[in-house]
Structure formats: structure tokens, C-alpha cells
Write a structure and sequence with these properties.
Keywords: Signal. The protein is of the alpha+beta class. It is about 20% helix and about 30% strand. It has 6 helices and 17 strands. The longest helix has 27 residues. One 2-acetamido-2-deoxy-beta-D-glucopyranose binds next to loops. The site of one 2-acetamido-2-deoxy-beta-D-glucopyranose has 3 residues, from loops.
């Protein structure tokens, strides 16, 4: 029964292919062609390991897609290293007479020097604050009851009074909010701030706001907003990873990309805030590299697929002992056991 069904499927398929071929020829020329397919013999067996996922940072497959980071242009680096630079998609909150925004090369991170400087000029600032907001990729999807981990780096001349909130992009209604206060001595040098926001309401078109009501100078860098409920807590969107699981892939091939807009794996490992990020000039957008080489290996492991990697010198990072040079960096990121990397692709799409 099953056999005859699959046979008739094959038959139908061949008829369609033959029709297409014939029609095509008929248009090009009036002569007819006969295509004979001998389906009685099976071809070479296709190995099980040949069915998998081909991932590439195209059209926001990673940044704004699988990778759950909500902030777009987290480190203010997307506008380039000539300062002052464009900070899009960040926008100003408040009147331009109340706050001046500019970028400068004063970050505490060596490989991504651009930081944002906010000169807050108002003596009587509006009660809902002035500052900056980020709409994410297409408006952040904030879900009632969900928790979000906010991390950013800050420096201030004077004590710090800030509010971190999610607000509706349209209308500005507050969905979640947290106050961050620190004394002058705590923030006179760069300081890492972490807080959790819990959404009171949902909105699929939200923005992250960093605001203050006090005059002064505040510097910001590496602002991240991550949902806490990512797949296995590893930073990938659970709804999309579940779709990948349904494909039952045996391998996960990444990162793709050509030499011109290459992904440099050494720039994509270690603490996320220290990664330089890169501009993919073929697809014309910036990625902060939160989804780097480690995260790709982790995702492959989480979905039970073998990673398929493209660069020779990344092999030790994936497979080396925790005591080896690159294996020890992987261990410091929380995975002392080698990943199951067995395949290496040479070139792109070969
Ligand atoms: C179309 O048919 C003519 C006459 O049989 C032949 O000379 C010509 O090469 C054919 N053209 C194509 C595109 O097959
Ligand atoms: C989100 O809100 C902004 C600001 O009003 C608007 O320009 C944009 O089109 C909205 N996006 C969606 C997906 O509705």
C-alpha cells in the first residue's frame, strides 16, 4: 500500500517534470523532445547526515531573528568609528534643548570604543524623563508577565538617577520600569548595571528607554535587553528553535558569508560586551555578534545536530581540551567539554 502510494507520487512528479521540460522546449522551438526516466533502479543511497540546516546572517536571520537580543546597535558602533556618528535606530527622548546626544571614543572596551554621551541640560526636566530609546529591529515584542534581563555600562559626572523602561513605541505607555540610582563614586568610572524588567502589559511594538530627570552628563555603552525565557537559557528564541527542531536536522552549518563580509570567529567569542561586531556589507546591516561562534556550537548541541564549521583555526576552540589555548577560552565561557564538531566546510556553499 505504502509502496504503491509512493510510486504514484513519483509518477506524478515525473509527469510534472516532463511537462515542464516539454513546455519549455515547445516555447523555445516547435520541435518536441522525449524524456525517458527509468525509475526501476534506485540511485546511490543518500546518507542520513546530509540533511541539515544551512544558517547564514542574511535578512536578519540571526540579529533580530533566532538570536533573542532585543536591542539593535547595542554598542553604538553601527555608525562607524568616526565620531560623532549616527546612532540609528536609537532616538532622542525629549526636546533637543533639554538633551544633547553625541558619540565619542571613550568606551572601556578596547575593541568597540564608541560610547554615547548624553548631556542633560534641563534644570526642570519633564517628569517622564529625557534620554534615549531603542525600537529594536521592528519594534520589540514585550509580553505580559515575561522577564527581561537588562545590562548596560554607564559612567556619570555626579550621582546617577536613571529609569530603564519598556514603553509602547506608539503613545509611550509604560510596560515595565526600574529605577537605577548610584552615588557619584560608584559611577565615576564605567560600571556594569544589571536589572530585570517584568512586563505588566503586552505590546508587540515597544522600545527600550533609558532616561533621567536630572541635569548632568551620562555615558552609556553596550546596552542589552534579553528575554529570560530563551531556549535552554542559551539566548535563542524558543519559538523559532522549536521550528528548527521539527526539521530534525542532523547538522547545523554556520556562519556562512563570503570573505568580503566575513565573520571573524575570534571577534565573536568571549564576553559579548567586548566583541567588536561587524557590518555585513552584502546584506547591509550591522550585527553586534551576540550570536557568535560559541553560541552557534551551543545551538547545534541543543538541537541535537552536528555543527559544521568553516574555518580551520576554529577547530581547537570547538574540540580542543579545556587546557588548550582556544579550548580554554571555550571553557571560560561555560563549556569545558569539547563540542561534537566533526565536519568542516571549505569555502562558502561548497
Ligand atoms: C529549432 O529548430 C531548428 C530546426 O529544427 C533548429 O535549426 C534550431 O537549432 C532549433 N533551435 C533551438 C533553440 O533548439
Ligand atoms: C511601531 O510604531 C512606530 C511609531 O509610531 C511606527 O512607525 C511603526 O510602523 C510601528 N511598527 C509596527 C510594526 O506597527
Amino acid at each position: 500500500m505504502i509502496f504503491s502510494k509512493s510510486c504514484s507520487f513519483l509518477g506524478l512528479y515525473l509527469v510534472i517534470v516532463a511537462c515542464l521540460v516539454l513546455q519549455c522546449c515547445a516555447y523555445a522551438n516547435q520541435t518536441s523532445t522525449t524524456l525517458v526516466v527509468d525509475a526501476s533502479k534506485s540511485g546511490r543511497q543518500i546518507p542520513d547526515t546530509l540533511f541539515g540546516i544551512f544558517f547564514e546572517e542574511i535578512n536578519h536571520a540571526g540579529a533580530g531573528g533566532l538570536w533573542a537580543e532585543l536591542v539593535n546597535n547595542r554598542g553604538f558602533e553601527a555608525g562607524g568609528t568616526q565620531v560623532p556618528s549616527n546612532i540609528a535606530p536609537w532616538t532622542i527622548v525629549g526636546q533637543e534643548s533639554a538633551i544633547l546626544l553625541q558619540t565619542e571614543l571613550s568606551s572601556c572596551f578596547e575593541r568597540n570604543k564608541v560610547a554615547l554621551r548624553m548631556d542633560v541640560l534641563c534644570d526642570n526636566c519633564p517628569s517622564d524623563g529625557v534620554g534615549v530609546s531603542n525600537p529594536g529591529f521592528w519594534g520589540m515584542n514585550i509580553v505580559q508577565g515575561n522577564k527581561y534581563k537588562i545590562v548596560f555600562f554607564v559612567r556619570s559626572e555626579g550621582p546617577l538617577y536613571m529609569t530603564v523602561s519598556f514603553r509602547k513605541t506608539e503613545g509611550g505607555g509604560i510596560l515595565a520600569s526600574s529605577n537605577i540610582d548610584a552615588s557619584e563614586s560608584e559611577v565615576s568610572k564605567w560600571k556594569r548595571i544589571e536589572t530585570t524588567l517584568v512586563a505588566d502589559t503586552s505590546s508587540s511594538n515597544s522600545s527600550l528607554y533609558l532616561t533621567t530627570t536630572k541635569k548632568g552628563v551620562i555615558l552609556l555603552d553596550q546596552v542589552s535587553a534579553m528575554p529570560l525565557d530563551t531556549y535552554k537559557g542559551h539566548g535563542f528564541r524558543g519559538d523559532l528553535v522549536n521550528m528548527l527542531l521539527e526539521l530534525k536536522p542532523t547538522f547545523f552549518r554556520f556562519p556562512g558569508q563570503t570573505l568580503r563580509n566575513a565573520f571573524r570567529w575570534k571577534d565573536s567569542v568571549g564576553p559579548w560586551e567586548e566583541r567588536p561586531g561587524h557590518f555585513g556589507d552584502v546584506w547591509s546591516y550591522w550585527t553586534d555578534e551576540g550570536f557568535g561562534y560559541f553560541e552557534g556550537l551551543q545551538l547545534a548541541e541543543d538541537i541535537g545536530a552536528r555543527p559544521l564549521w568553516e574555518a580551520l583555526d576554529g577547530i581547537e576552540f570547538a574540540r580542543g581540551e579545556a587546557t588548550s589555548k582556544w579550548g580554554s577560552l571555550r571553557a571560560s565561557m561555560g563549556h569545558p567539554k569539547p563540542f561534537d564538531l566533526k565536519y568542516v566546510a571549505i569555502g562558502n556553499e561548497d
